[in-house]
Amino acid sequence: MKGCDFIFYTPEDQYPGMPHGEMCGDIMPFYWEGRYILFFLYKYCIYAVETEDFVHYGNLRLVLQNGSPDEQDWHAATGSVFHHDGTFYFYYTGFCEGNRGVPGKYEQAVLRAVSTDLIHWTKDRDYFFPPDTRFYGDRHWRDPHVFWNPQLERFCMLITATEKDGAVLRDGCTAVYVSDDVKHWEHYQTIYSPRTFPTHECHDAFQMGDRWYLTFSNYSRWWETRYRSAMSFNGPWEMPDQDDMFDGREFYAAKTVTDGKKRYLVGWLSIRKDCRDDGRFVWGGNACVHELVQREDQTLGVRMVEAVRRSFRRKLPLQIHGYEGIWNLEERSQMSADTDSEQLTGISEDGFGWASLGELEDPCLFEATLRWKPGTKAVGLMIHASGEKLERWCQLRLELTHQKIVMDYYNRIDGDQSYIDERPVRFRDGEARVQLLVSGTIMQVYVDDVALTTRCYSVQSDLMGVFTEYGTVSCIQPRLMAR
């Protein structure tokens, strides 16, 4: 199966009624000799697909077949790949729901497979690492993540675990085991146990500069990937003041991978049940990749992968038309010599005003700088806009007084109780760089170094534009690009 080649990888097209397990989930990225190998869960087995740029993907291949209902890996699940001394080690989770509550058996255990070429894998039938009940609870025991720890000068394995006698649904913790040979492991300590979440799934730990970062995912509220930072691997692990997430509420199980120069965050974007805007978000979806950025204050942001941006080479014509408010287009000849494109300015002091910029293709990329005057309440983009009276639309809102970005939709009416996709942003200097990537049902937005990725099933393509509410916006150097 070829899978999807439109930026956001998935092994097959999504369709209404798609069963759990038939989607791409819990991606385990690994870099080797110029290529990124994305191991992922699919059909209760572990598969892999390769890419060199996060734009084009090869054919998927089976890595680990799941076992029988009587075997520990009835479902082969999340783990990590590590290379040492000529051998690739794949530590993964063996799920067997039928073992729950059975004396002497375990619902979850850490298992191991080995390879010499990343293609052919052999399960190590002699390796079995069940929950370590000396220190932890006996149920949640999964997602082993192995890495070299330069501070400890030993190999480390992070494990999703629970406190042995913790509070119900607040006992999630990060267990650490260490090794000198990537084969034999001993308990080190619990490095993070905030008594907040039921579990911390799909851990990762890495250094950027002089800081350590710990990432994990949690499903108790939304699908969410969070992070903490510390000066030492041993902690204390601090929560960022404003924002401890990398993307919206559908970006899950993200782990990092580096080529030695840049570090990328690879997770999956959930789909909605039956591919409907009013369906609940379910497990699994499309691969979603960001480049990690360390800010001056040591917090983390993200930006678009540069190879993804460069893959959009064909310039689409701008077709500007003002619908509400007063709009003025400054041509290149009227502007300064160092400006290579137009500037569209709109004024709508008594409410909402918008202008179209052109027609979307699938996929396409839009980029511009949005600038606003003091006192303006909101500016942003209209996406998938259609109808003589703007009957259908999606809207990226930069809510300036609230210091956040929001993705809103035309069909959120009549007391719709589904949550709004939003992210906190620190707007500075009265402007923001905005990028919008549209591919199928997916809309991915970057506002400076903050991302918000979400979906819309009911409307696709049509017009895009810019808007302002109770104020003035300028759209500077707009570019609409296709592949």
TrEMBL record:
InterPro entries named in the record: GH32_Enzymes, Glyco_hydro_32, Glyco_hydro_32_N, Glyco_hydro_beta-prop_sf
CDD domains from the UniProt entry: GH32_EcAec43-like
Residue span(s) of domain Glycosyl hydrolase family 32 N-terminal: 29-274
SMART domains named among the record's database cross-references: Glyco_32 (SM00640)
MF term (GO), any: beta-fructofuranosidase activity
GO terms, biological process: carbohydrate metabolic process
Keywords per UniProt: Glycosidase, Hydrolase
EC number from the UniProt entry: 3.2.1.26
Pfam families: Glyco_hydro_32N
PANTHER family hit by this protein: BETA-FRUCTOSIDASE (PTHR43101:SF1)
Record-stated family: Belongs to the glycosyl hydrolase 32 family.
Protein name as annotated: beta-fructofuranosidase
Lineage: Bacteria, Bacillati, Bacillota, Clostridia, Lachnospirales
